[in-house]
UniProtKB/TrEMBL annotation:
Main localization category: cytoplasm
Stated name of the protein: Pyrroline-5-carboxylate reductase
Residues binding NADP(+): I6, G7, C8, G9, N10, M11
Pathway connected to this protein: Amino-acid biosynthesis; L-proline biosynthesis; L-proline from L-glutamate 5-semialdehyde: step 1/1
Taxonomic source organism: Natronincola peptidivorans
Catalytic activities: L-proline + NAD(+) = (S)-1-pyrroline-5-carboxylate + NADH + 2 H(+); L-proline + NADP(+) = (S)-1-pyrroline-5-carboxylate + NADPH + 2 H(+)
PROSITE patterns named among the record's database cross-references: P5CR (PS00521)
Residue ranges annotated for the Pyrroline-5-carboxylate reductase dimerisation domain, each copy included: 161-264
Gene Ontology terms describing biological process: L-proline biosynthetic process
Matches recorded under HAMAP family: P5C_reductase (MF_01925)
Domain Pyrroline-5-carboxylate reductase catalytic N-terminal: 2-95
Chain positions recorded as NADPH binding sites: N55
SUPFAM superfamilies, per the entry: 6-phosphogluconate dehydrogenase C-terminal domain-like (SSF48179), NAD(P)-binding Rossmann-fold domains (SSF51735)
Length: 264
């Protein structure tokens, strides 16, 4: 197998979906293991990958192994696979707070490790993933892994010290954005709009605004100013958001998020 996933939940399925749809690795060269058989079988049915209940089968048969279990299960899974992985296997991690040094110590031997942080928009091919690696991973191997991760969105190489910031700004941020979209829809419902239509108006406005930031490369404050007419409607809304500490709430939420990474 080219690519193996240990843990076949939300992130693993999102990553596999993009990789297969982008023809980066064919489904019959991907294998996934999980402790829960019905969800594995459903993934096999949807994506056509190989499945197993045995993590070791993934470990011995894959060139690249994604550890797609929750952080609290990293210890037990690493203990299980460390004795049997081959020297040239590349381990890809996606958990917050698990540093390259921690991981190397847990494996207890020289292992090629690529530490990444993806996000759930990978499910629709619009993921944002950060990556860094230990010294054993050659530049050519980094490029290969990057190419695979690009199957489900954008990828940036980062120095490891910014990984907690990455979790706050992209790994976890879809949750805050969904809360914002939900709140926008609620606000429109309050003004009398139908719920289903409100959700479309809210989501499309967030999508379009994000695209403007990426495509115009203008500062977000400049784009905000373009919406605020003098004595108009928008500046009234901006005033209320500033009064209620909107930006400060976001920054403080991200600070809590990054602090949690350090405790994991
Ligand atoms: N969700 C997100 O937005 C993001 C998540 N991540 C990271 O991705 C990783 C996976 O998260 P996510 O996909 O959300 O989690 P999920 O709970 O959806 O998936 C994890 C899967 O691993 C299975 N599992 C648990 N223990 C084992 C084991 N010993 N061997 C094999 N499989 C096991 C779980 O089964 P069961 O449910 O039966 O226990 C579950 O199906 C985490 O490290 C998370 O921090 C990173 C970026 C974004
Ligand atoms: O909440 C979490 O811990 C994971 C990591 C990033 C997004 N979800």
């Amino acid at each position: 197998m080219k690519l193996g996933f240990i843990g076949c939940g939300n992130m693993a399925q999102a990553m596999m979906g993009g990789i297969i749809a982008g023809n980066l690795i064919p489904a019959d060269e991907i294998i996934a293991s999980d402790g829960y058989k019905p969800s594995l079988e459903k993934t096999k049915e949807n994506l056509g990958i190989h499945i197993t209940m045995d993590n070791k089968e993934v470990a011995v048969n894959s060139e690249l192994i994604v550890l797609s279990i929750k952080p609290q299960f990293y210890d037990v899974v690493i203990k299980e696979i460390a004795p049997i992985i081959k020297e040239d296997t590349i381990i890809i991690t996606i958990a917050p707070g698990k540093t390259l040094e921690d991981l190397e110590n847990q494996f207890g031997k020289k292992v090629k490790i690529v530490r990444t942080m993806p996000n759930t928009p990978a499910m629709v091919g619009e993921g944002m993933t950060a990556m860094c690696a230990n010294d054993l991973v050659a530049e050519k191997e980094m490029k290969e892994v990057k190419g695979i991760l690009e199957g489900f969105g954008r990828v940036e190489m980062v120095p490891e010290y910014v990984m907690d910031a990455v979790v706050a700004v992209s790994g976890s941020s879809p949750a805050y954005v969904f809360m914002f979209i939900e709140a926008l829809a609620d606000g429109a419902v309050l003004q009398g709009m139908d719920r289903a239509q409100a959700r479309i108006f809210a989501a499309q406005s967030v999508l379009g605004s994000a695209k403007m930031v990426l495509e115009t490369k203008l500062h977000p404050a400049e784009l905000k100013d373009m919406v605020c007419s003098p004595a108009g409607t928008t500046i009234e809304a901006v005033k209320t958001l500033e009064d209620r500490g909107f930006r400060s709430a976001v920054i403080q939420a991200m600070d809590s998020c990054a602090k949690r990474c350090k405790d994991m």
